[in-house]
Each structure stands twice: as structure tokens, then as C-alpha cells.
Write a structure and sequence with these properties.
- There is one protein chain.
- This protein is α/β, with parallel strands linked by helices.
- The chain is built from nine helices and seven strands, in the order H-H-H-E-E-H-E-H-E-H-E-H-H-E-H-E.
- The chain has a three-stranded parallel β-sheet. Strands 1-2 form a two-stranded antiparallel ribbon. It has a two-stranded parallel sheet with strand order 6-7.
- Strand 3, helix 5 and strand 4 form a beta-alpha-beta unit.
- Helix 1 crosses helix 3.
- The radius of gyration is 34 Å and the shape is rod-shaped.
- 13% of the residues are buried.
Length: 236
């Protein structure tokens, strides 16, 4: 059954007069009658009592309620599809780890939403390695990654910014291990910490299966020692 038959059925229900409805819709009574017959054949039930005057049956009232909802949804769908064609509506799937999305998205979203108010944003929270695989499988439109594989053939990687990795340590812990040398070690580390200077400390580090973790562990390798990892985690 064509949805247009439901449209003719709803219009006839407004007038309950074949002649009046046919004239209003600029169609013939036969055409209108054929549409009504299609609806009745589709549902296998009579929708109108035709004598003494045209009136809806109980089934007809149920079909009318359904048809009005369906036609309203179809009108709404046409509006949505029109927006999609005109790039006013849609969705964009972004990949980023929680720490990264917390840092970047608040800066991006206000201007993006102002320009594309009807575009839905879907955020996928995973590590850089996992996000790159999802980009390659076309499951993400783009992703914020650490040290993206710029030479990877099947996607475009662009350097957006340089992140600083901060080394946080308490004064109490420093003094416990280094005593009076604490202030000189802190001063030396201000332009950038060389990890060998802190080799006696216990560390909370990022796991090496994480892209950021690999960068951090490379700092220890450069310093020539393996840290005493008191605890390891996926994120900071």
C-alpha cells in the first residue's frame, strides 16, 4: 500500500463526503475511491459505513489515528532529510581519551554548536591505538591521538598541538628521599625534569600499552633506569 492512499483516507475523514473531498484535492471520485479501497484491502476490514451517510467504523477510527501519526512522522522525516541534504543536520563521531576530550572539547564545542546547532556529536572514549584502528575501519570521523602514526597510509594525520607531560611529586616525598638536596633538585628540574635525578622515588606511571605511557617510559629509558612503579594505570 502506497502511503499516499493513507493521505487520501485522512482527507476523506475530514469531509466524510466523496464529492467534496475529490473536488478539494483536484482528483476524481474514482481515484479517491480506489485509494480508500486499497487501504481497506491492505487491512482487510471495512473503514466506512456508507449508508445512510458516510461515517467511520470503529476500525476506521483506529486506522485514522494511526494514519495521522504516520503522516506526521513522514512529514518530520522529510524535514530532517532536507536538513541533511543541506548539511544542517547530521552526526559526527569523535574519538578521544577522557583526559584529552576534557581538555579540548570545551574549547571547540561552543563555536561548533553555534555553526551546526542540529549536528549531534557522538564521543568514543578509548586509547590512541584503539582510536586509530576505529578510524581505519571508518567507525570514527576523526580522533585526537597521542603521537598519531603520521606515516600510516590509509588516513591523514595532522599535528595539532604539543602537550607537556608534567612530573608531579610532593615536597614531603622529595625531602624524605633527598633531605637537604631537595631544593637544589627542584630548581634543577624547573626547565624540565631529567628522570635519573628522581630514581629513588616510587612512581605512579601510565601503562606502557598506552601511547602516552610509551612516551613516559621512553623518558626512563633515556635516563638509563627502570622506575620502581608503586602503581600503574591507564590514565593519569
Amino acid at each position: 500500500m502506497d502511503i499516499s492512499s493513507l493521505h487520501y483516507f485522512v482527507e476523506l475523514c475530514k469531509d466524510l463526503n466523496m464529492t467534496k473531498t475529490a473536488d478539494r484535492l483536484y482528483t476524481s471520485q474514482q481515484t479517491l475511491s480506489n485509494h480508500i479501497q486499497r487501504v481497506e484491502e491492505h487491512y482487510g476490514i471495512k473503514l466506512f459505513d456508507r449508508r445512510p451517510t458516510l461515517r467511520l467504523t470503529i476500525a476506521g477510527r483506529e486506522v485514522l489515528s494511526f494514519a495521522e501519526r504516520l503522516l506526521a512522522e513522514e512529514k518530520n522525516l522529510k524535514s530532517i532529510l532536507s536538513d541533511v541534504v543541506n548539511l544542517d543536520r547530521g552526526e559526527i563521531v569523535i574519538g578521544a581519551s577522557s583526559p584529552r576530550s576534557n581538555a579540548y572539547l570545551p574549547q571547540i564545542l561552543p563555536s561548533f554548536t553555534k555553526t551546526y546547532p542540529n549536528v549531534q556529536i557522538i564521543l568514543v572514549d578509548k586509547t590512541s591505538d584503539q582510536l586509530e584502528k576505529l578510524v581505519l575501519k571508518n567507525e570514527l570521523d576523526f580522533a585526537f591521538c597521542v603521537n598519531a602514526a603520521i606515516n600510516q597510509r590509509n588516513f591523514v594525520a595532522e599535528a595539532m598541538l604539543n602537550d607537556l607531560i608534567y612530573f608531579c611529586v610532593s615536597d614531603k616525598l622529595l625531602y624524605k628521599h633527598y633531605g637537604d638536596r631537595t631544593e637544589s633538585i627542584k630548581k634543577k628540574a624547573l626547565p624540565g625534569a631529567y628522570m635519573a635525578d628522581f630514581s629513588e622515588l616510587p612512581f605512579l606511571t601510565i601503562m606502557a600499552n598506552n601511547r602516552l605511557g610509551q612516551c613516559i617510559h621512553a623518558c626512563f629509558q633515556e635516563a638509563g633506569y627502570t622506575p620502581h612503579s608503586y602503581m600503574m594505570a591507564t590514565y593519569t
